[in-house]
Amino acid sequence: MPTEPRAGSSRTKKTAAPSAQPATADTEVTATQLERREIPSFSESREARIAEAAYWRAERRGFGGGQELDDWLAAEKEVDEEIATRQTRRDRE
């Protein structure tokens, strides 16, 4: 016996997922970047960006133990330099 949806069903219509932001020169990921694992971070917080960069460094060296602190400190330096560079660009504008 086929069933029909009830009138006044409480189901809601599905909405479309929000579209991704268009890639810009700063966020476009190239094949070379993917090969080198130089993928831009879309995280807002400094700590999240450092954690991502440290992860990529650890992956490049095969996740060998004993160098976690070195990965973190190098990632911190990298992220802080990036932040300073962006701030300098903004100040010039």
Overview of this structure, please?
- The structure is a single chain.
- This protein has helices at 31-36, 46-60, 68-92.
- With 93 residues, the chain is mainly alpha-helical.
- It has a domain at 44-92.
- Helices cover 49% and strands 0% of the residues.
- The radius of gyration is 22 Å and the shape is extended.
- It has three helices and no strands.
Give a nutshell description of this structure.
The chain is mainly α. The chain contains three helices and no strands.
For the structure shown, list the relevant keywords.
mainly alpha, 49% helix, 0% strand, extended
From the spread of the alpha carbons, the general shape counts as: extended
Helical content band:
40-55%
Distance between the termini: 70 Å
Strand runs, count? 0
Rg, please? 22 Å
Structural class from helices and strands? mainly alpha
The helix/strand order is HHH
Summed up, the helix count is 3
Low-confidence stretches: none
Q: Determine the strand fraction and express it as a percent band.
A: under 5%
- Mean pLDDT equals 77
The largest sheet is:
none
List the helices and strands and how they pair.
Elements: H1 31-36, H2 46-60, H3 68-92
Helix pairs in contact: 2-3
